[in-house]
Design a protein that fits this description.
The structure is a homodimer of 152-residue chains. The first copy, chain A, is of the alpha+beta class and 152 residues long. Chain A has one domain: Gcn5-related N-acetyltransferase (GNAT) (Aminopeptidase). The first copy, chain A, contains six helices and six strands, in the order βαααββαβαβαβ. Chain A has a five-stranded mixed β-sheet, with helices on both faces. In chain A, β2 and β3 form a beta hairpin. The relative contact order of chain A is 0.15. The mean pLDDT of chain A is 96. β5 of chain A pairs antiparallel with β6 of chain B, so a sheet runs across the interface. Chains A, B: GO terms for molecular function: acyltransferase activity, transferring groups other than amino-acyl groups. Chains A, B: Keywords: Acyltransferase, Transferase. Chains A, B: It comes from Corallococcus coralloides (strain ATCC 25202 / DSM 2259 / NBRC 100086 / M2). Chains A, B: This is GCN5-related N-acetyltransferase.
Chain lengths: 152, 152
């Protein structure tokens, strides 16, 4: 297996990132899901990459983007005023799963979060994603909370 | 009951906000929990209020801060590039619960989120907080996700 390297996403990666996100039954079941780079997706990407508290990290093998996640760094008053990292939109290319690429990607995000002084990393994962829950549990995550959502 | 009004928190509210957050068994059980305004809490407050994507909203009755929450507005590539609102640190003063102040506070947060173009609001709540889960369900939240956390 070629080595996986990690870096911040660039605008030219966006079509591949959207393909990675779209190749997922649960994502496809959701209202508004995008299969290609729409103006809304393009605007969101530019906003994320311009915001110092948001990053999209991609994993690359042989110059191909094969994994992605978004991390948001959030200051807060709870737990003594800690900063936390929120992880969203985690995806590894389907034909490359089971090779610990997701683990390396999450470790990259957690190292960045630690370097920014975060004391906690958190995420929500659809209750139907049993494999994802086992994956996060192996990385030390505890399903201590209900993840509740509401459309607006 | 006097009317409750909502506004963004000011630095002078911080000691009261910290008291509201501290008056909670689950919060007290956590590492690093603060009972008073420490330098870390003060720094977090200043960072939150300086960040256009973070707000601390307080509810006020007769000039007294009696409720609080934090909301973070997060752009994302999922669900077609929607913006979401993350709510944290929701608290109503213990002697004033059951009077729909929490509902009004959450509605204020959701109105602000809508005004900023958010299509989704989300939160995590400790699985031991059964009453909180019923409260959020009444407001239309669905516990569709596991909320997973890990210390760093």
């Amino acid at each position: 297996m070629p080595p996986t390297t990690f870096r911040n996403a660039r605008l030219t990666d966006l079509p591949t990132i959207i393909q990675l996100l779209a190749n997922d039954d649960i994502a496809r079941s959701r209202t508004g899901y995008a299969e290609e780079v729409t103006p809304a997706v393009d605007a969101a990407f530019k906003e994320i990459t311009a915001d110092p508290n948001n990053e999209i990290i991609v994993g690359e093998q042989d110059g191909q983007v094969i994994a992605t996640l978004q991390v948001t760094y959030i200051p807060g008053l709870g737990r003594g005023g800690i900063r936390r990292a929120l992880v969203e939109e985690v995806r590894v290319r389907s034909d490359l799963r089971g090779q610990r690429i997701g683990e390396a990607l999450m470790n990259e995000a957690m190292e960045r979060a630690r370097a920014r002084g975060c004391a906690l990393v958190q995420l929500t994962t659809d209750k139907r994603r049993h494999e994802a829950q086992r994956f996060y549990a192996r990385l030390g995550f505890v399903a201590s909370h209900e993840g509740m959502k509401r459309p607006l």
